[in-house]
Amino acid sequence: MTWLITGGAGYIGAHVARAMTEAGERAVVYDDLSAGAADRVPQGVPLVVGSILDGGRVADALADHGVTGVVHLAARKRIGESMDRPLHYYRENVEGLRVLLEAVVAAGVPSFVFSSSAAVYGMPHTAGNDALVTEETPCVPLSPYGETKLAGEWMVRAVGRATGLSTASLRYFNVAGAASPELADTGVSNIVPMVFERLTENAPPRIFGDDYPTPDGTCVRDYIHVVDLAEAHVATARALQFSPGRHLTLNIGRGEGVSVREMIDLINAVTGYDRPPTVTPRRPGDPPRVVASADRAATELGWTAKYDVQDMVVSAWEGWIRRHPEAALV
Length: 330
What we know:
single chain; 330 residues; alpha/beta; Rossmann fold; UDP-galactose 4-epimerase, domain 1; seven-stranded parallel sheet; four-stranded mixed sheet; 10 helices; globular
């Protein structure tokens, strides 16, 4: 199999490209480099620079490299930005997906894996501090970003039904960690790098609200190591390869909740900082608890997460101090 990985020069995409090659699959990266970097692409993996909105460029890449499957990760993903620029997000995430799928169907590519998000659930109504979000939990996204991911799932599933394309939508929970320092997340939109940035600036980490109905009053989330996430893509790709016309919708998480306060305490311990957080008002739309049920992924793929939150923070910190050596405490 030859897999075209859109967005394969980004944080998650580069890990997927690496996992594919390590598993013996052939990978080709397609990326416009607006958020990715060419030096993230594994050695020996071809890089095609282009936008998913350019159907002709996509079609050429599929033909030139004999692509037999697509993993689609290229998308805009900042929730706050999506609130300010909804049309931009619908163009990039929904229209871009439509153009890509059109090229995939025309080329007769048989398998398609779509990068979705737990943002499709919005504020899930789960009772109790042990409740898990399943794939049957109603999807009521709270942001244009989440809406575009849900619309993308609908589109992928509909095209699969109409054409026989084997498809999967993977709903990522909170991604952290790195396979190696040079592949670490360079953004600061997720909690781990956000806290790293505050510590580096000699500022206290921030907790957005500590009056939620959770054990310590702070929001509880499910965190998944990016290496586990990448391996889930390999398992999904292989599952589709041997099941023509199949469709999967899967949560990719660990099924374990970690509160914001617990995460900050762990980051302080790993980094050697001892900076208590400051509490600020809640952010609008933050659900108290979002923790995945990963049972379906285990059943359908034979995949389960291997790494814990400590592994995520340690590997992420190694990447952070590689770029910010001044942050390391001697």
